[in-house]
Structure to design on (145 residues):
């Protein structure tokens, strides 16, 4: 039996599909947690010159929190159609590592995630988050395409 399902989300269409899949499959039997990861490393690669100024990263973090709240509100609207109240969490770090660590520490029974959120060169250079989670997660992982 599945008691706790983790759905990592990054606002990509595939992460939205993953949430819908998790709701359709587990709405009646499991707690569903959305996890959004703030990736400082990825943000640093594309940071503008003013990133070296005092306060830039604090402002960046506040913006990330606001965007996560909007993301969670949209996801809750979807979950309301299934009569489910989602648990929401954020983490700071590399997405794959943060997802695996969350699954280990929070006793997650199943991870449901989109096959990719990135595209183009960044996906090629940084590798696939879904592939890393598949290899390292302590529980079954369903990848939605």
């Amino acid at each position: 039996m599945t008691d706790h399902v983790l759905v990592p989300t990054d606002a990509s269409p595939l992460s939205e599909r993953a949430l819908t899949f998790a709701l359709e499959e587990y709405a009646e039997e499991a707690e569903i947690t959305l996890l959004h990861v703030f990736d400082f490393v990825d943000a640093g690669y594309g940071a503008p010159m003013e990133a070296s100024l005092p306060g830039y990263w604090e402002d960046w973090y506040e913006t990330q929190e606001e965007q996560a709240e909007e993301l969670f509100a949209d996801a809750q609207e979807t979950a309301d159609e299934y009569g489910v109240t989602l648990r929401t969490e954020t983490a700071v770090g590399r997405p794959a590592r943060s997802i695996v660590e969350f699954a280990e520490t929070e006793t997650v029974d199943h991870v449901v995630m989109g096959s990719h959120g990135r595209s183009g060169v960044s996906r090629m250079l940084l590798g696939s988050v879904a592939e890393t989670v598949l290899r390292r997660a302590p529980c079954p992982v369903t990848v939605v395409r």
The chain is about 50% helix and 20% strand. The beta strands are 4-8, 31-38, 87-92, 110-114, 141-144.
